[in-house]
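P.,

For your records, the input lines for the assembly:
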Amino acid sequence: MIRSNNFFIYGALGLLGIFGPIVFPDYTLTIAYLWMMVLMASTWDILGGQMGYNSLGNILFFGIGMYISAIVQVSIFYEGGVWEYTSAMGSIKPEFTNSEYFIGLGLGIICAGIVALLLSIVFSSFMFGLRGPYFAIGSLGLAIAAAEITITIDYVGGASGISMPLFPGDIEFRSTFFYILCFIMATAAHFLLRWLYSTQFGLAINAIRDDEDKAEAMGIPTLVYKRIGWGIAAFFMGCIGAVAGNMAGFIDKEVAYPIPTFGIFMVAMVLLGGKGTLWGPVLGAIIFHIIKETTWTYLLNLQWVALGLILIINIVYFQQGIMGWLQDKFPERFGVVVDTETLQSDQKSGEVS
Amino acid sequence: MLDNLQLLFVWAPIINIQIILEGIFVGAVFALSAYGLALVWGVMNIKNLAQGDFVIMGGYLALALSSASVPLPFIVLIVTSVMFVFGWCVYVVMIKRIIDQDMFVSLLATFGLSLLLQQVMNLIFGPEVQTIDMQLPVYDAFDNMVTIPSSKIISLVMAGIIAVCVVLFMKKSRTGQAIRATAQDARAARVLGIDTDRVYAFTFAFNAALCGAAGVLVSIIWVIQPFYGITYSVRTFAIVTAAGLGNLPAVIGAGFGIGLFEKYTGMILGTAYEVAAPVSILLLVLIWRQISMKRNRQVVQ
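Structure tokens returned:
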């Protein structure tokens, strides 16, 4: 990739990450959501960009993670159990001590990730036979079904939702704490993916994207690689779901399974940035988030119209994304050597293939 | 759940008739929009996720017209023609540019369209649940066990008329033949002098008109709301996937099947599961297809 500029990009993002909330204390949670979206877009790109499996249902693991962490956090230190807590519809406010809360939160996040990972393995046994658009529709159906089934389960509050334990500490500490969690997770996911794409795993999933049948014929265990890819995405989505649930403070179907919002935003962000690249999703997420926040602030009531328009324009007219456009424009910066002499001689003989 | 089963099959089997009738009413509407989706999917390989929003849009148009006290047959005519023009515009602006692309692109682009339509309708008509009150009599049968609103019968008859017209149109007319020829082999059709671009535009506009007609029926027999569109989209996808591509009569059959299945699930398991039913059908069909494909496929694992 852009090796010489890497240092500056990391430097700039690191500066934004560390000093952003200090310089703009009012926007701490907004920037936290930015890192969350960076993480969503990056993990979506494992399947969507690098492996060619366009999932519309990754948001499923976000919701599952949210509910799992809620169950874990409540059940660990509250004697009455989850059932009593949810049936009271939020009128019970258990007093957790600081250590109890943070241990519960940590365990909740880890459990959320692990359960999401396990579920992704279960789902992958029947989902990965679907190819192309059928995978997209199937995963969307999976997410909608999960959302509809969740509201019928009274154990987690059913349609009326479940309120998360109160954060011990004042509001500023709360937002800084969740900000740090989001930032760490996004960074961890980014570096994990950066490393993974440079290994054999990256080559294998790219081979699956380019031609799955040939990859299979070459002896690549495609199902294993697909499972690993989806598992990583699911793990991170579960973890970030747990964090997002605690940030929101109250979860129900709309918060946990935001299919029309985050579920589609993550795809739009990747397409905006350029899919199949390491930096595309990050760039796309940052730009998308800025556009979203500006329209939210200045175009009240019209923000959704604006977002739909952005989505359409992005997909219909600007499909290769920013990174793709840059690659077309400056191929030499991406390590692609353009041999002008051969190109010209080819053009002369009229054999441009 | 057991209580409901007992109620259905032991205590009052008459209720079955009510549910079957409801399922048929529901299925007629689904079948219309699913037929449009199957057409667009088969002819131009576009998966239109905004299908449900076209339906709701037709419903709101009908609502606006009926509040201006336009009689019902004219409402259907006006709504279908407006939706036809709208579909043509959407084709020219959007669909034309994504028609040769990956199928996922069409899914996402039409999802963007669906978001846009939802929000515009929300801004214009407000988020309330609305319906057209035709003030028609409601008939009872079997000792008041079964109620049949005459608006539902009218809508069923209308759906039947529209369906017959569509099937005849596709079979007999020049344009219908051109559409079928393009679906079979676009390049050959072009060689033989069919303007495929126009055929595509017509097909998409025709689909929008069908959805609009379905929307009129929805607004008469149920309620419409700007955000209900996605559930109709999912149902139509389930129907088309279950029926199989290129099998247009089966689409209508599957429409009624899904309608019945949904109503029975709602009765036996509770209405909360009514929305989940078509989605699970969709998943089951996809899984079933895959199992049957696996027999023919040898995998290196």
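Two observations worth noting. Chain B touches chain A through 46 residues (CB under 8 Å). Residues 14-44 of chain B form the longest helix (31 residues).

Regards
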